[in-house]
Amino acid sequence: MRAPTNLNALRAFEAVARHLSYASAAAELNVTPAAVGQLIRGLEDTLEIELFHRSTSGPSRLTLTDAARSALPDLQGGFDLLSNAVERLKASKSRITFTITVPPAFADKWLLWRVERFQQKHPYYDLRIDTSGHLVDFTAERIDAGIRYGAGNWANLTSTFLLRDEFFPVCSPTLLKGRHALKTPADLKHHQLIHDTSMRGSSVFPTWRSWLLHAGVRDAVDTDRGLQLNDSAMGIQTAISGNGVALGRTTLVERDLAEGRLVRPFDTVQGCELAYYLVHRKGGTNSAPIEAFKAWLLEEAGLR
Question: Which are the contacts of 282, defined by CB distance < 8 A and separation ≥ 6?
């Protein structure tokens, strides 16, 4: 029997396998659920196997069969290769310059050491990164997309959730030793507090005062003292140098913790409703650079 050549049916199968829903797959593919169902049934008939177990109850009425589950990674890899090949053919005529705006600390601590992977995957894009700290006017400044930190709502922009942080103290390993070694949160009274004031205008952004209350420490530490910096990356670097304790954010301290430049002296974490989002002008979702960058970001963030 020949392998199926209907790419639409294979694409429908891959989308349904990810969503475990005909309706969600149909919305992604811009067709009707009935059309998706017809493509799936046709593919099953061609292959003479069942791709999904179907039930009328439970949290999901569709589950992958063992055969479908084992084939899915190769199929997804094949679609990635096809997409890359098409992009390369398009790019053979001319290279595409793609401009994004990114908060400076996020660029420094998360994006820049990963971005080579994007350029290896999409060598036909020349990526231009703007690390301005202000909110950029996408139209006036000819920006294609950006990464913003906030509640996810910005006028005239479409946003896609990427990452949400937890907050916790971080410091140099040297502060875990010596006369005033950090053993309990109350020991912070012996060390300089590094305050991140980059989100001073937000009432929900964690501060030393809110974290200490969350940790059950009320009066032992003066949260008004210390070094105030309006650059998150600068605050982290100051903590790395041993000149105080910073309130770290998962996204910004992940690598420094993994490589031993920072440690977490305490386990208590505080959540925050703010998050990082990819944003672009409404109506720009069909732009190939935006879609490529979005897919890569979601993969790096562990959402694909």
Answer: 156, 157, 158
pLDDT of amino acid 97: 84
In this prediction, residue 60 carries a pLDDT of 55
Coil vs helix vs strand at 267: coil
* pLDDT above 90 (res 285): no
Q: Please check whether residue 81 is in contact with residue 209, taking contact to mean a CB–CB distance below 8 angstroms.
A: no
pTM: 0.68
Helix, strand and coil percent figures for the chain, each rounded to 5: 40, 20, 40
Span 96-162+275-300 CATH architecture: 3-Layer(aba) Sandwich (3.40)
CATH architecture, domain 166-271: 3-Layer(aba) Sandwich (3.40)
Q: Which of 5-9, 123-127, 179-183, 270-274 has the lowest mean pLDDT?
A: 5-9
Fold of domain 7-91 = Arc Repressor Mutant, subunit A (1.10.10)
